[in-house]
Amino acid sequence: MGLFDDPDVLLHGIDELNKKSIPIYDVYTPMPIHGIDDKLGIKPSRLGFAAFMFGILGGTTIFSIVYYTLVHDWPMNIGGKPAFAVPDFIPATFEWTVLFTAFGMTITFFFATHLFPGRAPRVMELRATDDRFVIAIDAKGNVPHEDITNILREAGAVEIKHNDRKYVSYE
Amino acid sequence: MASHHEAIIREPLVTGENITYAKVTDDILKPVENMPNKAWWIGFTVASLGALLWVFAVSWTFWYGIGSWGLNKTVGWAWDITGFVWWVGIGHAGTLISAILLLFRQNWRNSINRSAEAMTIFAVICAASYIVCHMGRPWMAVYSLPLPNQYGSLWVNFNSPLIWDVFAISTYFSVSLLFWYTGLLPDLATIRDRASGIRRRIYSIASFGWTGSVKSWQRFETVCLILAGVSTPLVLSVHTIVSMDFATSLEPGWHTTIFPPYFVAGAIFSGFAMVQTLLLVVRKVLGLENYITMFHIESMNKIILVTGSIVGVAYLTEFFIAYYSGGEYEQYTFLNRFIGPYWWAGCMMYGCNVLMTQLMWFKKIRTNIAVSWVLSIVVNIGMWFERFVIIVISLHRDFIPSSWAMFYPTWIDVSIFIGSIGLFFTMFLLFIRVLPSIAMAEVKLLLKTSSEQAKKKLLAAGNLEPEQAEFYKESLTKFDSVELSEYKK
Lengths: 171, 489
Known about the structure:
The complex is a heterodimer of chains A (about 170) and B (about 500). Chain A is α+β, with helices and mostly antiparallel strands and about 170 residues long. Helix content of chain A is about 50%, strand content about 5%. Chain A has a 4-stranded antiparallel β-sheet with strand order 2-3-1-4, with helices on one face. The mean pLDDT of chain A is about 85. Chain B has one domain: Formate dehydrogenase/DMSO reductase fold (Up-down Bundle). In chain B, α15 packs parallel to α16 (about 450-460).
């Protein structure tokens, strides 16, 4: 693992490793750093698509409920006005569109990223949520350990760690 | 990229010497990781006594019914709905800061969004408690949901703004909570990784196993952006729908089409005032002057000035339309605000909301902490009176003079209101004790571009327009957290 104390030096380190075709296991940062996802070849998130579908689902659901209750099951005569009063149905439809979008998308996010209450945190370096920007490289398969250490050091890593256990947080 | 250069003429968002990423974490977590200081204990004692009063007064209301309030046949809504609208309005600033300012890429939101969102949630809890209380039989609240029942089923009326309100407030509360908690995950993980023992276990459960890997950050940002995108129309819809509770009636003083934009502006106005009230104290007590700087205070004061002026224009429009419409009931309602028995409430409303906020045009006032704090309280009082004026003055004298009546609050009315403030502050004080009151990860983003240090490096490197450098140094003089002597040449 290479520990950096500056996001720009970290990006430089990733570039150096990429140049030498050394596969990076993952990168852990205390804040979102734009540009890493491109360098690591991570595709843009498809959560926007999920959000859109959940929004449509929410709107359709509540509109169907309103239609069934007020138009189909028990139409009321309110001053002779039509029972199927679409403008009046807009607020509830809108609210549930937002509600389903927000919850559907966020739950999808938690599911896809394996986040849920009580999940054991798989932390490789405790300071990665504080002030260290960490590049993790799988030691198995990447045999020339010395070379990788040197690449990281030359790229500006402040510390190089060789963890025997994958996750320190299990101790 | 993390390190593009920001123009020197922009004021720093993080001040102070030697602010590193680690120092940001240390400073912000100080109140969370240490025993609270005396100021916190005093505040918490007072606030929790208030919350106890709230529990007592609400229990009394549930036991004896809303007959224990000062309502009568003419004035059927008074302090309850006044309090409800006031609290919902206050909540709006949190969503505005966290969602709308995110969409507009206003970086200064980063250090105030967390506590503002928390404030939103607590304010909406207070507002919702008013709604449940004013039903009289709170267990009947279930009939506001479209559930099958033994009356036929007799469904809820989706043509009614009151049902829209149920949907709007419940969606608003749950989406705000979701947005706030999702944003908290990375910071909870920071606390977890620094803690040990039982604290570590608790924060471990609460942080959902967040590690800060690339993929989770990338998706996290997408989620935050989309949540901001849907929260923005949501927050506007909430107060629009609240205003429709009034605007769709035929009551003079309520039956106006200007209400939705006027209520939304008023909500943001009162919400920012409450954020200001809280943060001016928080930054002092928790020692966060370097993160919530004079720039933040002045920006919020500017928003208070703008929204206060919008509210002022709305007031003028209302008066003009009352005159221009030729409707005698409408005209009487607006005259009654000044010459009726509640003239003092009208004066509080117009005086506090329109006249007092105009003082914010002066930079000396905008950047004076004590005056800003007093003015923020004045705005809160003024906005409470605005709702009181709209609700009670309109109701107490409308069409038939024989039905005219006065409203006098009972001690239960007063206790519920004071108690709800106590409840709000109890929750807020607990929040700053156990959760980071500033979004650490987001402040760390600003460090390399918008901090005072980064700007200092730019100055030292030279290559700047001399006027711009001078302008920047001039802008620093208003800060109370900047060591000015270093900039004297």
